[in-house]
Amino acid sequence: MDTLFGRALFWLISGIVRIGFRFFRLLESVLPQEVLSIIVWPVAILWSLTESDKRRRVTEAWRRFPESFRPDRVDYYLIQTFGLTHARFIYLWADRLPRAHWRRRCILRGHYDSEKLRRPTKPIIFATLHFGPSQVLFVCLRAHGIPVTVLVGPEKEPRQRLRQQFVNLKLSAPVDIPPVLPATDIGRIRRNLVPGRFLLVSMDVDRGKQIRTTIDGQSFRLATGPLRLASVLGAEVIPCLICFEKGAWKVAIHFGAPVPPDYLNGSLNLEAAVNHILGEFWPLIHSNPSQVSHKLLSCMNVDDTPAVREATDDELLASLPYFT
């Protein structure tokens, strides 16, 4: 509930973070990353303690895990609260991530062709899930020379506005390739997704047309907007997940095999395309359950899949993710 005290608290936190922004950027320039990480941890923990709604959602999410791969409760709580908050601090140095000592902490794995990703001949949509430190996936991709764009929703509170300002001001990229786009600006989204451009899209959202699929006895409800958008614009769809590795700000980006073009052309075989993507995701999800977010869990083993029907252009784009 919005209250005067709550708003004042958010603005106070935002002011402190603005000062801290300069301070931590100075520290990054003079300290090893391991030492910097240790200094950031107390701040990350305090920041996370102010997010009471998030802590409640994480606690509730753990109970939704199937018994077959339920993680340790303490490990899950620590990663989904303090760990994710600590990971987001790399936004403070987003413009420095392309430097070698940062790029070494972000490993690329799986089915990817570095030359193809740097010089694509068609639009590319990275299909992802809320797994691991997904909020930093797009800055890590851009650090490797892949200028991906994500969508942002309405600016609802000071902390989100401040976070977006950091992205807009400090994320280096070609001037004609925006790091973020408003989800409501359909024209710009269509104009931006042309050959040689990238869009990062989440499939575990509750907006737009959905489809249910099952793997290893687990049911998933996933959005089909990214696939239908790819079909309309002739884009390639590549499964992409990010996960934590051991070490300060160490992550790995896993690329799956691209969705076969036959699934996206002509009659558009959504079921086969979704099964392909989930098949690429599942081994990593199953082996790292503590990195499954409450948003992804909300799409597992549910019985409220919306009825299938044709979607308008607005509804098609409504299934694309906000940057939060």
Determine the fraction of residues in helical runs and give it as a percent range: 40-55%
Strand content: 15-25%
Radius of gyration: 19 Å
Strand order of the largest sheet: 1-9-8-2-5-3-4
H and E string:
HHHHHEHEHEHEHEEEHEEHHHH
Distance between the termini: 19 Å
The major β-sheet equals: 7 strands, mixed
Q: Which assembly state applies to the chains in this document?
A: single chain
User: What average pLDDT do the residues reach?
Assistant: 82
Task: Give a quick rundown of the structure.
Helices cover 45% and strands 15% of the residues. The protein is of the alpha/beta class. Strand 3 (148-152), helix 8 and strand 4 form a beta-alpha-beta unit.
Can you walk me through this structure?
The protein is α/β, with parallel strands linked by helices and 324 residues long. Helix content is 45%, strand content 15%. Helix 8 links the parallel strand 3 (148-152) and strand 4. The radius of gyration is 19 Å and the shape is globular. The model is unreliable at 305-311 and 315-319 (pLDDT under 50).
